[in-house]
């Protein structure tokens, strides 16, 4: 059983995407993810895939690392493709075998929706891999800062988001250690009957919950030791700046979105 996750773990490299303002980078990623759901035609899909490929090249992230991180979602996307292939009706009938009917619309749906979802996941992964959890927390804090001005806990929500990103790899490592310890004692969750696997998973879950509570208690003590006050005003040592690089990123994002909508109206 694998508990290795890439969420909350940035990929160290020197690229223009890594050096982008985290707030602008997060906004661009969110806009591209939203734009992916407007992809409907083969030309739009090819264009969007080329854009994502170019972004991965600019980020200097190895394709092997990306694919290894995307393996957990491959099974879900495969099931999605199969369901679309068998359930979507329309267009020309290609195969008829008893209750199984495959049409051209089903084939296109089996290609479009999984690839589109995978593209959106890649954009999210690219944001996570090129931005440290601390910078993501700052970006989230900048976005929610207007809430603090009207009395809502904007900074507290941003801090919770930042801590969540920081603790995901920690809990992943704890889960891997607990699973290895269970396997050394003959309680592997990968072998044996279904009942035995469920019991092993139950033991891992209980131990992981106990570990999470211990981390939370240690974090609370660390915050108290540093005299942390939730509502206190704060400043940042490194101020975010909007430079020519960020302007180019916004222009490219707007151009990609405009290209997607332009292709939908010019090519049927």
Structural summary, described in words:
The protein has 268 residues and is mainly α. The chain is 70% helix and 3% strand. The protein has eight helices and two strands; from the N terminus they run αααββααααα. It has helices at residues 22-36, 42-58, 63-87, 104-130, 133-149, 154-184, 194-225, 244-266, and strands spanning 93-97, 100-103. It has a two-stranded antiparallel ribbon with strand order 1-2. Strand 1 (93-97) and strand 2 form a beta hairpin. Helix 1 packs antiparallel against helix 4 (104-130) and helix 3 (63-87) runs antiparallel to helix 4 (104-130). The longest helix is centred in the last third of the chain and has 32 residues, at 194-225. 22% of the residues are buried.
End-to-end gap: 46 Å
Q: Total number of helical segments?
A: 8
Radius of gyration: 23 Å
* Cα shape: flat
Q: From the helix content, strand content and strand pairing, which structural class follows?
A: mainly alpha
Summarize the main sheet. 2 strands, antiparallel
Q: What are the secondary-structure elements, in order, as H or E?
A: HHHEEHHHHH
Percentage of residues assigned to helices? 55-70%
With strands numbered from the N-terminus, the spatial order across the biggest sheet is 1-2
Strand-residue proportion: under 5%
Q: Average pLDDT value?
A: 80
Uncertain segments: none
State the total count of DSSP E strands.
2
């Amino acid at each position: 059983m694998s508990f290795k996750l890439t969420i909350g773990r940035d990929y160290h490299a020197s690229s223009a995407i890594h050096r982008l303002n985290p707030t602008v980078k997060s906004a661009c990623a969110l806009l591209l993810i939203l734009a992916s759901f407007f992809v409907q035609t083969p030309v739009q899909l090819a264009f969007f895939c080329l854009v994502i490929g170019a972004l991965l090249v600019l980020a200097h992230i190895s394709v092997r690392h990306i694919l290894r991180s995307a393996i957990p979602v491959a099974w879900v996307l495969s099931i999605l493709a199969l369901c679309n292939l068998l359930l979507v009706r329309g267009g020309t009938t290609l195969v008829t075998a008893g209750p199984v009917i495959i049409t051209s619309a089903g084939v296109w749906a089996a290609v479009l929706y999984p690839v589109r979802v995978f593209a959106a996941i890649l954009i999210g992964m690219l944001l996570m891999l090129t931005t440290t959890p601390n910078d993501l927390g700052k970006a989230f804090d900048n976005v929610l800062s207007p809430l603090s001005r009207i009395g809502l806990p904007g900074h507290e929500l941003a801090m919770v988001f930042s801590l969540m990103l920081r603790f995901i790899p920690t809990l992943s490592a704890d889960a891997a250690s607990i699973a290895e310890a269970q396997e050394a004692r003959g309680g592997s969750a990968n072998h044996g009957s279904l009942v035995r696997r469920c019991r092993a998973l139950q033991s891992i879950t209980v131990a992981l919950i106990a570990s999470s509570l211990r981390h939370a208690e240690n974090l609370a003590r660390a915050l108290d030791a540093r005299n942390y006050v939730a509502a206190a005003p704060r400043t940042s040592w490194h101020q975010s700046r909007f430079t020519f690089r960020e302007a180019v990123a916004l222009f490219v994002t707007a151009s990609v979105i405009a290209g997607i909508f332009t292709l939908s109206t010019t090519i049927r």
